[in-house]
Amino acid sequence: MLGRSRAWLIAHGEALVLAPQAQRFGDLCARRAAGVPIAYLLGSAYFYGREFAVNETVLVPRPETETLVDYALQFAKCQGSQPLRILDVGTGSGALACTLAAELPSATIDATDCSAGALAVARANARTIGVDSRCHFYLGDLAGPVADLQYDAIIANLPYVATADIPAAPDPLAFEPRIALDGGPDGLRAYARLLPQLPRLLVAGGLALCEAAPHQIGALRALCEAAFSKASVAVGCDLGRLERFVIIVLPEA
Q: Is the model more confident about 80 or about 157?
């Protein structure tokens, strides 16, 4: 709002706030009081130590999702120097795709989303972070835009809030895009559509990671086991030790 750093504010406590700045601050306070997430007011949020631009077309990145990056990096470490091809389904702000590209300098990341607005944000973030040459963004439904490709790792953080559980304002969740929240009656509608697509996209020895809410993990694991009958399927926890992910590892050829 003021265009000044925290250090400047501390050093210039005597500076006056101009009337337009005061008006802007008051407007922001009113919007926050109505429930608008702080990230939308500031226009950015932090994920895995990096700042990402966000707006009302994308979900605010959650710290719980950072554990997905940890699992993917562990997998990449086990692959040695092999350059990986990774798919991020439902990329939103591009937080996962851009972070993986930044952490894995030899990897190529493809990312899909059905929202043109979200992809505009993701592309801008890729440029800001300096990974746009290795991040490729595709507009379309789930894995449809890349159905003829194969990947070493696939990550999906799809809408998983049950329709009946989406709150109304002033809950901050009500201000995030419904298309990125609403997972249907049980919250797993998007995963039920995606998982049958994945076996032909994942190479032998490949990794797939899917995020959902802790109370849905059992049902999501069952969907994963049905789609990957020969894979190792396990559950991973977030930093709060809550079951948050299903981890699929295909056997080597």
A: 157
